[in-house]
Design brief:
15 helices; eleven-stranded mixed sheet; Rossmann fold; single chain; four-stranded mixed sheet; alpha/beta; elongated
């Protein structure tokens, strides 16, 4: 298989293992609305943020959408062309590797890119995800008219789609558009309502589908040359008796089959996405201006209808969506309105100045974009996180300056995939789905001597069990305890229904 070669390729394909693992710290003053939705907004470099996500979400993301920088020169204005391009490839490779690890087996990734890098991106995605997982290159008509400033101005962006061959068969049909619905008529007053007719032939020669059909008006037909009828004769007779065959108003036309609006589940998407169906740049600009005002808006946002189309095809309500180049927050906003869970990652101040207010407006019931079409009136919520300090040193040991609440949140999240609501004042972290979790670390019991706090002993177990009564005074289920070591034997642990996990070795990290 052809591969790309660039200046720093050998270093870049090994880059993921050198990315430090950092813990996520919630910034509670920026979190908003309901806290138990699983929705996350993360501020920080997306390479490190994706690495931090692995213990929680590896193999769990149903749909990944990214709209990375297109390398038009503005993003890397200080580099010459060759180094500029290498810099872009260097940025993308390790991020795509991590996204591959996060995508579920039945999931898909959708990558927006323009002509400047589309073909390089295709080759890179082939190598990372596997060429057999390439689904299609969707062409999105982003403009409404030609750019009068230049000849042969680009009218479209590419959206490269990858999924396992089995997963792509599960893509959803798109709802009928208003124009498609208008094409359904009822010229014969069929009691089943409006319908459209489609050809009753199929390509090829099949002896048992080459019968003669006589119409109600007396005209006889054989299949056209090179084709056969679409069904066996007995099936044709059954359809005709049910009134599902159409022979034209005078009953003499070649047979066609009726398809009723009441039975239309939708239409399968194809690779041409017109601006009429999926929005356009001007629409996106109006949406973003309505939220931030023209002076503070992003230059190249995506319209909500474009993301709506992607999520309609690739996900169901409740599925997890990830966008690691969040920019104007469109992906998270649309996912929220469509009832999907989401993780959005954005670096720098934009996470607070743009992403945060947009998501708050969504929770409060904004009327932008797809809101009216989905009857959106607000609700839900999200948690805001930032990247904390490195969790592990070069030897794999937990860094000594990691605070108890931060590691506790990591342990809880890695075990339950839900945010932790604790304050870090007790070794008992909580109970989830019938299992309790506890962490003995950094002298949480007020005594950093081995027997006093960080080691599981009879006395520390008794303290944990007592603390668990705050969550459920009658709890007697299994208990998972993280600590430096255990002084309790296997038989005693089994009798107490305790699973011991040693820090740092059993703390999930990649």
């Amino acid at each position: 298989m052809p591969i790309l070669s660039w200046l720093t390729r050998e270093d870049d394909i090994q880059a993921v293992k050198d990315v430090p693992y950092r813990l996520l710290e919630e910034v509670s003053e920026h979190s908003f609305g309901a806290g138990d939705t699983g929705n996350m907004l993360v501020q920080g470099d997306n390479l490190e943020a994706l690495k931090a996500m692995l213990p929680f979400y590896a193999g769990q993301v149903k749909c990944i959408y990214i709209d990375p920088p297109y390398n038009t020169g503005s993003a890397f204005e200080h580099y010459d062309d060759n180094l500029e391009h290498s810099k872009w490839l260097s940025m993308m490779w390790p991020r795509l590797e991590l996204l591959r690890e996060l995508m579920s087996e039945d999931g898909s990734i959708w990558v927006s890119v323009d002509d400047d890098e589309a073909h390089y991106m295709k080759v890179m995605l082939d190598e990372i995800f596997g060429r057999k997982k390439f689904v299609v290159n969707c062409l999105w008509q982003k403009r409404t008219s030609p750019d009068g400033r230049i000849h042969m101005g680009d009218a479209h962006d590419h959206i490269l789609v990858y999924a396992d061959p089995a997963a792509r068969t599960q893509f959803n049909a798109l709802p009928l558009s208003e124009d498609q619905r208008k094409s359904y008529k009822n010229p014969d007053n069929d009691p089943k309502g409006p319908w459209v007719s489609t050809d009753f032939t199929a390509q090829g020669f099949r002896p048992n589908q080459m019968y003669e059909i006589t119409t109600p008006g007396g005209t006889s037909y054989l299949p056209p040359e090179g084709r056969c009828w679409a069904n066996l004769e007995e099936n044709f007779i059954r359809l005709r008796n049910k009134g599902r065959m159409w022979f034209g108003k005078d009953g003499t036309s070649r047979p066609r089959i009726k398809n009723y609006l009441s039975e239309a589940a939708g239409v399968n998407s194809w690779s041409w996405w017109s601006n009429k169906d999926a929005g356009h740049n001007q629409e996106a600009k109006k949406e973003i201006n309505a939220i931030f005002g023209a002076a503070n808006a992003f230059d190249t946002p995506k319209p909500e209808r474009l993301i709506e189309r992607i999520l309609s095809v690739a996900t169901e309500p409740g599925d997890l969506v990830l966008d690691s180049f969040l920019c104007s927050e469109t992906t998270a906003a649309v996912a929220h309105k469509m009832g999907r869970k989401y993780i959005g990652i954005e670096m720098g101040d934009h996470a607070i100045t743009h992403c945060l207010p947009r998501l708050r407006a969504v929770v409060e019931g904004d009327e932008v974009g797809i809101s009216k079409a989905h009857g959106w009136q607000g609700g839900g919520g999200f948690r805001f996180y930032k990247l904390g300090a490195n969790a592990f040193d070069e030897s794999g040991h937990i860094c000594p300056d990691i605070r108890f609440p931060v590691l506790a949140a990591h342990v809880w999240f890695s075990e339950t995939n839900t945010p932790w609501n604790g304050k870090g004042k007790s070794p008992a972290l909580g109970i989830h789905d019938g299992t309790a979790y506890a962490l003995l670390f950094n002298g949480i019991l007020g005594d950093k001597r081995p027997d006093g706090g960080n080691v599981l002993t009879s006395s520390t177990l008794k303290i944990i069990q007592e603390k668990l009564k705050k969550f459920d005074k009658n709890f007697s289920g299994p208990l998972v305890v993280y600590g430096e070591s255990s002084r309790m034997g296997e038989a005693r642990l089994k009798r107490e229904n305790v699973t011991f996990k040693q820090t740092p070795y059993d703390v999930k990290v990649r």
